[in-house]
Every structure is written in C-alpha cells, then in structure tokens.
From TrEMBL:
<keyword id="KW-0456">Lyase</keyword>
<dbReference type="InterPro" id="IPR029062">
    <property type="entry name" value="Class_I_gatase-like"/>
</dbReference>
<comment type="similarity">
    <text>Belongs to the glutaminase PdxT/SNO family.</text>
</comment>
<comment type="subunit">
    <text>In the presence of PdxS, forms a dodecamer of heterodimers. Only shows activity in the heterodimer.</text>
</comment>
<feature type="binding site">
    <location>
        <begin position="54"/>
        <end position="56"/>
    </location>
    <ligand>
        <name>L-glutamine</name>
    </ligand>
</feature>
<feature type="active site" description="Charge relay system">
    <location>
        <position position="193"/>
    </location>
</feature>
<feature type="active site" description="Nucleophile">
    <location>
        <position position="86"/>
    </location>
</feature>
<keyword id="KW-0378">Hydrolase</keyword>
<protein>
    <recommendedName>
        <fullName>Pyridoxal 5'-phosphate synthase subunit PdxT</fullName>
        <ecNumber>4.3.3.6</ecNumber>
        <ecNumber>3.5.1.2</ecNumber>
    </recommendedName>
</protein>
<keyword id="KW-0663">Pyridoxal phosphate</keyword>
<feature type="active site" description="Charge relay system">
    <location>
        <position position="191"/>
    </location>
</feature>
<feature type="binding site">
    <location>
        <begin position="144"/>
        <end position="145"/>
    </location>
    <ligand>
        <name>L-glutamine</name>
    </ligand>
</feature>
<dbReference type="GO" id="GO:0036381">
    <property type="term" value="F:pyridoxal 5'-phosphate synthase (glutamine hydrolysing) activity"/>
</dbReference>
<dbReference type="InterPro" id="IPR021196">
    <property type="entry name" value="PdxT/SNO_CS"/>
</dbReference>
<comment type="function">
    <text>Catalyzes the hydrolysis of glutamine to glutamate and ammonia as part of the biosynthesis of pyridoxal 5'-phosphate. The resulting ammonia molecule is channeled to the active site of PdxS.</text>
</comment>
<dbReference type="GO" id="GO:0016798">
    <property type="term" value="F:hydrolase activity, acting on glycosyl bonds"/>
</dbReference>
<keyword id="KW-0315">Glutamine amidotransferase</keyword>
Length: 211
C-alpha cells in the first residue's frame, strides 16, 4: 500500500460506477490525494479506498468483469482502510438481504444489510443525525434508496442510527443502524459525498493516516 505525498495520503475511489466525482472532490477537500481505481494494479498505489454510492448489483458485476473482486477482498482483509457509502456499504457487508442471488460481497464488515430498506427512489429522505466520533453536532444525511444494517457483529461500532420519518418510535423501521465502523472500515447508508459537510471524509482520511 502506498503512503502519502507529504501529509496527503493517496486514497482510491472505486471508479467503475456511481458517485465517483463527488467522492474525489470531498476527499481532496478533506486533505487526501484522490486516485480513481479501475484495475487491480492500481490498488498498490493507495493507502485507503472509497466505495461510492451507486447500484450495488451493477458494481458487483463490474468488480468481477474488471478482475477486482478477489484483489479487493484480499486488500481489505489485509488491513486496507475502506469507506463505503450506500451501495458501498452493501458491498462491504458480509451478507446482503434482498439482493440478487449472484451478488458478490467484499466482507470487510461483520454486518448484515438490507438492500433498499427504506424504500424506492420516491421514499428518499433527509435527516440530521448524531454521529459518533465526529465533532460539531449532527450530520445532515441524505438517504436515496438506502440500505440499513439489520445485524451488526460484536466487533462493529455503531456510529449513527435513524428513525424512519413516517414510523412511530416503536415501528419496524425505527432506530435503524445507518453508519458503522469496524477497525479501519467505515460505512454509511447515506450519501455524505453529495452534501457540503466533509466531516465523514475527514474521519476516514484520519483513519487512513493512522493505518
């Protein structure tokens, strides 16, 4: 794994599909040197990796097409810091519910996620969330066809939860887990890359520096 240019660690953004440009811009603003990743050889030049929001089943197929699936699994298992938003969270999970039977997982997080858990595109919503480890008050989170974490393993730290805005406090979608961390792997069900708030990306860049 590569380290930094000066104090700016080289952080890859999986550039097969999804919100690549948005993550690149946020990483650069958060103090990293963003590097698009499309091929296995490019993994050796980065100190961390972002898996963007997009369409998880499409990204899963493209990982196989571009022969990145196994190299990515090995890199993350070997300690490469990773951050996934929305579809990226799904890919990092050890198991996905309501996915395609042939959908592949990277397995960097000991979590079970439910795909499109909050509903379709028309059910997208925004919420202000307390977020553990991030100073400055609640984060404004944008949920678009978002997953949630159905089950988290003992080694997984819950960073944020959100009640469904149309659910009562004790309803089936209330207080669901939407952000987690396990070691140097972080995931959010929402899209911090499409807001102006850099705090989640800064948190990840600091994890990369420490790793």
């Amino acid at each position: 794994m590569a380290t930094a240019t000066g104090a700016r660690p080289a952080v890859g953004v999986l550039a097969l599909q999804g919100a690549v440009r948005e993550h690149v811009a946020m990483l650069e603003s958060a103090g990293a040197r963003a590097v698009p990743v499309r091929r296995p050889a490019e993994l050796s030049g980065i100190a961390g990796l972002v898996l963007p929001g997009g369409e998880s089943t499409t990204m899963s197929r493209l990982l196989e097409t571009f022969e990145l699936l196994e190299p990515l699994r090995e890199a993350i298992a070997g300690g490469l810091p990773a951050f996934g938003s929305c579809a990226g969270m799904i890919l990092l999970a050890r198991q996905v519910l309501d996915g395609r039977p042939d959908q592949q997982q990277l397995g960097g997080l000991d979590v079970v996620v439910r795909r499109n858990a909050f509903g379709r595109q028309v059910d997208s919503f925004e919420a202000d969330l307390p977020f553990a480890g991030v100073p400055g008050g609640p984060l404004h989170a944008v949920f678009i066809r978002a997953p949630w974490v159905e089950k988290a393993g003992d080694g997984v730290e819950v960073l944020a939860t959100v009640p469904d805005p149309e659910d009562p406090p004790d309803g089936p979608r209330a207080d669901r887990i939407v952000a987690v961390r396990q070691g140097a792997v972080v995931a959010t069900a929402f899209h911090p890359e499409i807001t102006r708030d850099e705090r989640v990306h800064r948190l990840f860049v600091e994890l990369v520096r420490k790793a």
